Amino acid sequence: MQIVVQIVLVLAVVIVSLALMRGGSNARHLAIRRIMLVLFACVAALSIFFPGLLSHVAMFFGIGRGTDLVLYGLIVSFLVFMATTYQRFRQMETTMTKLSRRIALDETNRNQSPAMAAGVIAAEVGSATTGQTETAE
Length: 137
Hints:
This protein is an all-alpha fold. The chain has a domain at 2-96. It is built from 5 helices and no strands. The protein has helices at residues 2-22, 27-49, 51-60, 66-111, 114-130. Helix 1 runs parallel beside helix 4 (66-111), helix 2 crosses helix 3 (51-60) and helix 3 crosses helix 4 (66-111). It is rod-shaped, with a radius of gyration of 29 Å.
C-alpha cells in the first residue's frame, strides 16, 4: 500500500507542476488556487481539532504517522509554491523588459532636438520618394 501512496504523490507533484507551468493567471487558474486554499484550510483545521484523525488517515494510506503525511503534503505544497513563484517572476521579467525598451525609446525621442527630429523625418521621407538613403547629422 505504501508504494501506491508514493506513486500517487509523485503523480500529484508532476501533474500540479505541469498545470502550473502551462497556464497563466487566467480565471480558471485563479479559481483552482482558491479552491486548493480553501481545501488546505479545512484539512488544516480538522487536523488541529482532531489530531488522531490525521493518524488514522495516514495509516489508511499505509503511512506510519500523521506527521509523515503532513510532511508529504508540505513537500507538495512547497513545489506548487515554487512553480507559481517562478511563473510570476518570469512574467514580471518579461513585463520589465518591455517597459525598459519603451522607456529607452521614449528617452531617445525626447533627447533629440525638434529640429534634428524634423531633419531625420525629412531625410526619411525624401529617401523614400527619391529612392536614396541620406543620413541627418
